[in-house]
Amino acid sequence: MNKLNKIRGGVHIAVQGYEVDRITEVPIKRRAEKVYLICMPDEEDSERGKAFKNMIKERFEKNKIDYEILEANIFNLDEIVKKIKYAINKERKEFEEVKFYINVSSGSTIGCIAGITCAMILNRENSKIIPYYVIPKKLLDSLSDEECEKLREEYKYLPRSFGVKDVVLIYPFNISLPKEELLIFLKFINRAGDRGLTIKELSILTREEFLDVNLNNEESIMRLIKAVEHIDSDPSRIRIKRYRRTIQKLLEIVEDDKEELNKIVNWRNRTKFSENKTPQSDLVWVNKNVIEKLKEFELIVDEKIGRSRYIKVNEKGKMLLNYI
User: Fold this and answer.
1) What is the pTM of this model?
2) Is 276's pLDDT higher than 60?
3) Which of 4, 187, 203, 225 could, after both became Cys, cross-link 282 (CB 3.0–4.6 A)?
4) Burial code of 186-208, b = ≥16 C-beta within 10 A, e = fewer?
5) One domain, residues 145 and 71
6) How many domains does the chain have?
7) What parts of the sequence cross the membrane (predicted)?
């Protein structure tokens, strides 16, 4: 059975290469709802690259296919991943249950790797992502000189292939990812840079009092200190000054992600194991539920600096954050 017929509608994503049919024919024949084409920015692209981009756009416009150009360095894995994520998140935000098809045959090997990896990591039960490889009818290298001369009447630059014989659907494997709250912690740790965060700093992020803390409101700072240190008396001026620096650092890390901060606070409250909490029990909770779990996924490392233990995101963790 022709696999091409299994593709129906959906949102298509492709990295531009020196191809036309390989990028346009499947969305046109299977009536794609939209196509995202990832291309080099005009100022960085070659004349050949611009020519192929224009041919692809003209083909889509002629066949009334909705498309959007996303500019990126198509030889940079991280940039391609960001654009694929952008397209998927944008469509899901607007339409939720969207089926995606990623063309992994149109660009470079880097584009293929980005497409398949994004499909594995971002796949959802109600919003499937299926990469596909286009099998062309003819390759440029297989054509005679006479055939090439005839095609030059139609093309300024000859594509690497012509026509579509069929497609190979590449169904992604499911990848086990850390739970959402752990990924939020991972993101915050990564924002701390090379130094990372201490376990105590991570425990402060789980406090309800941190949600409302304000550097210009000393009362809110004192409430946070009392909650973290489990004390009833007012903290000293020295302690307030020391905490103020820590709070400023953590607020800069959280940025505007207050909703995500709220999620880890709620998670901490749901899973607390004792009403008789101490500063040590808070650190134990973070170590058991956050640090150990992220280590199981091999996403972080820790380093002893002075008397403090700093948690940092490793290369594998940084790569995962790029994809999610």
Assistant:
1) 0.76
2) no
3) 203
4) bbbbbbbeeebbbbebbbbbbbe
5) yes
6) 2
7) 100-122
